[in-house]
Amino acid sequence: MSNHIENLNWRYAVKKYDASKKVSAEDLQTLKEAIRLSPSAYGLQPYKVLFIENTELREKLKAAAYGQTQITDASQLVVFASITDFGNPEIDSYINNIANTRSLAVENLEGYSNMMKSSISPLPLEARDNWSAKQTYLALGNLLNAAATLHIDATPMEGFNPGQFDEILGLTEQGLHATVIAVIGYRHDEDAIQHHKKVRKSNEELFINL
C-alpha cells in the first residue's frame, strides 16, 4: 500500500508531454484491462472507451479541445463515451453475458433483469444519460490509478467541446456521447509543474468521522 501512495504522490495532471515517448503495447493492454475491470452500477458498464493514436484525427480533436497541446503530444488520447438512451436492450445484452460467462440459464436471471429494468428504464432520458455519464468517471479513475502504478502519466480533461467530439468521431450515430477524456504518455522535462508540491486538503479538513 505504501507503494500505491507513493505512486499517487508521483502522479499529477501533466500539461506538457514528450511527444517522442510512446506507451508500449504491453502497458496499453494493462491499462485497457484496468478499465475493463472497473466497477460500475450493476456491472453494466454503460460506455465505450476509444484509444486514439491517429495524428490527423487528434489534430481535429485538439481544435475541439481549445488547442490544448496534450491532445496531440501525449502518446494516446482516451475518450470515455457514455451510451445514450441506455435501457432494456443493453440490460438484456448484459444478462446474456452473465449467462454465458457463468454457464447459467437466462431464465434464472429474470429477477435480476427485472430489478435493473425497473430501476433504470423508467427514468427520464436526461436522468438515464446523466447516470451513464457518471459511470464513465469510475473507469477514468481506474485508468489514472493503473497508469500511476506503471509510472505512465495520465491527465484527465473536461476542457473540450463534447458535441464537436461527437461529430468528429461519429459518436452520435453509434448511440454514444463523449463524456470525459484523458491523455496518457510521459511528462516532458520542460513541464515545470512536475516540480510543484502537490496541494490537497488536510485529513482534518477533508474527512468527517462519525
UniProtKB/TrEMBL annotation:
InterPro entries: NfsB-like, Nitroreductase, Nitroreductase-like. It holds the Pfam family Nitroreductase. It comes from the Bacteria. Keywords: NADP, Oxidoreductase. GO terms for molecular function: oxidoreductase activity. The keyword Lipoprotein does not apply. CDD domains: NfsB-like. Residues 9-186 form the Nitroreductase domain. Belongs to the nitroreductase family. This is Nitroreductase. It comes from Flavobacterium noncentrifugens.
